[in-house]
């Protein structure tokens, strides 16, 4: 199914540039499951690429004009693809339609009952919670998530049911393309500094997203987060829109009465409005931390707004056990737990460190942090450093550039100096390969190591575990 404005057969033989990315691979997977002949390219091989090949997708490694098949009906790109990409240039020369990832995803949602999950933080987790719980109830949803639930390729699925759950990305305003029946807004903060210059621009962007909700649909929005409350005030009174707030605020539509953490799980009690079944409801969230508990309440509210009984959905939410890179336990060696976190914004860093602190017991929390993007570090480096002060000790790597070119004067020193000012025990490490040995020397049984950031710091978890096992064997 092609996006609006494109010929109906544009998605018959699509070519994805950067097909191994989280968002791109999910759309490619759904199209392949729907019978399209999908091809694409990526800079390197990966488990995600292998999962796509298992579905019959042709994936080329590297980018070259000859990778674009003669019969390609469209080329799908994300905002990360540069204009001089050889395959994109070839598409323009041959007159092949170029479709943005968001348009492709919008096309996939045509004819479904979409729930779109937006917010500066928590999108992947909340989308995953809905996908897992709705599947557990036998509703067979389709979904597109910005991370893998359990195995490479599990970030998306074509289901036979009428519900489609999608992560809605505000970073490049691509969420303006969707027309959800229910939209979730978890929080609203200033981020993505290359695309937004102020909070006013952020609010305008989220308001545009709200205006895309289908007539008679619902907005589920946090009552506790200041930016979300401000947005709620700006969209209040729109005809044909139900607004359901959730949170600990006494005026919330779905009020959180209590969150009790038990190790690495939480028990949540909410008070439902009569429109969603009424009465108190207690359920378990199988991941730690207040922010994950509140994400689960957002998922519960959205599902109930779509007509799924809250008292059936609540226990199903307990079947969600996590998503890759969101406080994912990588393993235990020499009595040390190694956990991976995607957190890269100061709010996320603080939330994950507070959540982990609750499950660390008497052990220390040691962080390996990799700042993500020069633009983000320039604007938020001081706040990142302040957040790292919540750890017992931190090792800070060089900035992961991703799609950006270096910015003179912007380095991880901005984070390190801020962390030190707030009393943190912080160490700079410019050689990523030296980190496993460094951590092996720092840790002791009972400690918890957290690899944190949106870049390739995630690769260090298995290497740290291997070094810990080696040291343990040498000392035994």
Question: Secondary structure elements and their pairing?
Answer:
Elements: E1 14-17, H1 22-33, E2 39-42, H2 47-54, E3 58-61, E4 74-77, H3 86-94, E5 98-100, H4 101-108, E6 113-118, H5 123-136, E7 142-144, E8 156-157, E9 163-167, E10 182-185, H6 199-211, E11 218-222, H7 226-235, E12 242-247, E13 254-262, E14 265-272, E15 279-285, H8 290-305, H9 310-317, E16 326-333, E17 336-341, H10 346-359, E18 365-369, H11 374-388, E19 393-396, H12 413-421, E20 426-428, H13 435-442, E21 448-452, H14 460-475
Helix pairs in contact: 1-4, 5-8, 5-9, 6-7, 8-9, 10-11, 11-12, 13-14
Q: Could you describe the 3D structure shown?
A:
It catalyses: UDP-N-acetyl-alpha-D-muramate + L-alanine + ATP = UDP-N-acetyl-alpha-D-muramoyl-L-alanine + ADP + phosphate + H(+). Residues 117-302 form the Mur ligase central domain. It is an enzyme of class 6 (ligase). By secondary structure, the chain is α/β, with parallel strands linked by helices. It is 34% helix and 22% strand. The strands form three sheets. A ten-stranded mixed beta sheet has the order 8-7-9-6-10-11-12-13-14-15, sandwiched between helices. Helix 11 (374-388) runs parallel beside helix 12. The longest helix is centred in the middle third of the chain and has 16 residues, at 290-305. It is globular, with a radius of gyration of 22 Å.
């Amino acid at each position: 199914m092609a996006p609006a404005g494109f010929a109906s057969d544009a998605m018959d033989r699509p070519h994805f540039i950067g097909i191994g990315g989280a968002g791109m691979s999910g759309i490619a997977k759904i199209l392949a499951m729907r019978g399209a002949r999908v091809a694409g390219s990526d800079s390197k091989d990966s488990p995600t690429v292998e999962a796509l090949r298992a579905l019959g997708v042709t994936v080329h490694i590297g980018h070259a004009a000859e990778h674009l098949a003669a019969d390609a009906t469209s080329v799908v790109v994300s905002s990360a693809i540069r204009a001089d990409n050889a395959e994109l240039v070839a598409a323009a020369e041959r007159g092949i339609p170029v479709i943005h990832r968001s348009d492709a995803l919008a096309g996939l949602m045509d004819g479904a009952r979409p729930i779109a999950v937006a917010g500066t933080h928590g999108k992947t987790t909340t989308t995953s919670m809905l996908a897992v719980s709705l599947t557990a109830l036998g509703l067979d949803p389709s979904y597109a998530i910005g991370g893998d639930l359990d195995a490479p390729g599990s970030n998306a699925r074509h289901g036979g049911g009428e519900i489609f759950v999608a992560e809605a990305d505000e970073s490049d305003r691509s969420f303006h393309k969707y027309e959800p029946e229910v939209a979730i807004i978890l929080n609203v903060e200033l981020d993505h500094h290359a695309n937004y210059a102020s909070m006013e621009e952020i609010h305008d962007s989220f308001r545009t997203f709200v205006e895309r909700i289908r007539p008679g649909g619902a907005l589920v929005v946090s009552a506790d987060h200041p930016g979300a409350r401000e947005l709620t005030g700006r969209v209040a009174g729109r005809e044909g829109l139900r607004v359901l707030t959730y949170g600990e605020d006494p005026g919330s539509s779905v009020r959180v009465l209590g969150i009790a953490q038990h190790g690495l799980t939480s028990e949540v009690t909410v008070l439902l409005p009569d429109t969603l079944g009424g009465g108190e409801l207690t359920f378990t969230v199988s991941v730690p931390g207040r922010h994950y508990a509140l994400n689960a309440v957002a998922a519960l509210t959205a599902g109930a707004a779509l007509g799924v009984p809250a008292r059936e959905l609540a226990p199903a939410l307990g079947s969600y056990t996590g998503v890759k890179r969101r406080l994912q336990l990588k393993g235990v060696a020499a009595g040390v737990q190694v956990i991976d976190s995607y957190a890269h914004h100061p709010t996320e860093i603080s939330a994950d460190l507070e959540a982990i602190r609750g499950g660390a017991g008497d052990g220390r929390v040691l962080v390996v942090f990799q700042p993500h993007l020069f633009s983000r570090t320039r604007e938020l480096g001081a706040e990142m450093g302040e957040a790292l002060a919540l750890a017992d000790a931190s090792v800070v790597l060089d900035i992961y550039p991703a799609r950006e070119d270096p910015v003179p004067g912007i380095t991880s020193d901005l984070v390190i100096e801020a962390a030190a000012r707030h009393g943190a025990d912080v160490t700079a490490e410019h050689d990523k390969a030296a980190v496993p040995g460094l951590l092996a020397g720092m840790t002791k049984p009972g400690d918890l190591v957290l690899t944190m950031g949106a870049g390739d710091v995630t690769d260090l978890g298995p290497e740290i575990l291997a070094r810990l096992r080696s040291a343990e064997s040498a000392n035994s």
